[in-house]
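Thread: Modeling a multi-component assembly for a lab meeting

Hi all, long-time lurker, first post. My supervisor asked me to bring a structural picture of a complex we are working on to next week's group meeting, and I have zero experience with this. I have the sequence lines for every component (447 residues in total). Could someone generate the structure of the whole assembly? Inputs are pasted exactly as I received them:
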Amino acid sequence: MPTVKLDASEISFDCAPGDSMLRSALRHGIGFPYECGVGACGTCKFELLSGAVDSLWAEATGLSERDRKKGRHLGCQAIPLETCSVKVRLDDHCRPEIIPVRRKVAFTGYRDITHDIREFTFVGGDRADFLPGQFALLTLPQVAGDRAYSMANLANDKGEWKFQVRRHPDGSATTLLFDGLAPGQEIFLDAPYGMAYLRTDSSRDIVCISGGSGIAPMLSIAQGKARDERLAEKSLHFFFGGRTPADICGEDILRDLPGYGSKLHYYAAVSDADAAHGWPGPVGLIHELVASKLKEALAAYEFYLAGPPPMIQAVQNLLVSEHKVPSSQIHFDRFF
Amino acid sequence: MKFVCMSSEIKPGEAKRVEVDGRAPLAVFNLDGKFFVTDDTCTHGDASLCDGEIDGDVVECPYHQGAFEIATGKPAGAPCTIPLRTYATQVTEGQVFARLDGEDGNADRQA
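Re: Modeling a multi-component assembly
Sure thing. I ran the full set together rather than chain by chain. Output:
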């Protein structure tokens, strides 16, 4: 079994055959830096000082030409082939609270959330253990590379994992999920991952902002908050943006939670004014609604975000640049 | 314009971290005799860019090797996506000056 040694430290860990350097490190409770886990964000870069690795995705977008010239690799794509010595700066934030495990799960059913978002349920033989807001990496048959999907439910002993996925007409993974899965079919699920999980030690009120299938981890966070006594006194403001009224969802799940209407508030906006006829709510981008609805200075809240990159960017600009919200109060995992 | 440091304090190809008026630290870069002033803290994580490596006209963050164009603050390598703030800079008689916040507000912010 290949061993990875971290330069300038006593730390080393074994990699199971075929397991990536990143996932192996996390399985040993080591804070190897990462965000997306699928080769795009570039956070898990390391320098290979000796040894050899195979890359699952040689053209990964998280590496620049400069990175490649300098002998850098991505921890999430590198499969160690022999003993390796690597240089990487560990990050305590990335040290997993719950050790990720790869297991087989069976597809048991789905329900439609909107015209293009569907919730898929998988069941495994062990406890589904994760923090609200975290994601799983799914290995789907005939799909190149693992895909990251956030859980929409809460940890449970039944082994149930629920994901809300938006259909992409040209996406091989969503085509497989929507059209190619038979009930009972087994896939591999590796979880939990991600740092955008519900903070139970924060004394601030909570704001969740999402668009599209980014609603899944926000629903998990809202359910987690509603069921956590430590956060009973806190309010949660749930913002969801869609293009048209047909894209709006999520309120039905919030309505069933304790504290809805008093401690849990739901706001939605549609962005396409031409498609908004009959829509009783606000028209515009979701970050504009956030700025107008919240009563306190924005730096008084804890923020959780999930959605398409332009939405994340607009919200970040609003929070960080305009309202000086410390980045330690803004939680999101970048997907692309 | 605000005095930041002496140009003689920074060798070509190097950077110096400077704190002015209790604001967030600045990074002063000397690229072949031309001086640039930016924020020192990476926009991705809490790292000092002055501890990073200068590679041509970009600076690499020491944490995740994300990168920025020094002159413009434009992100030049993952995981950085938010531009680094840059400030108009002028060197007069061996003294480096920069236009910080104040009279011109956010005039130098990169879009």
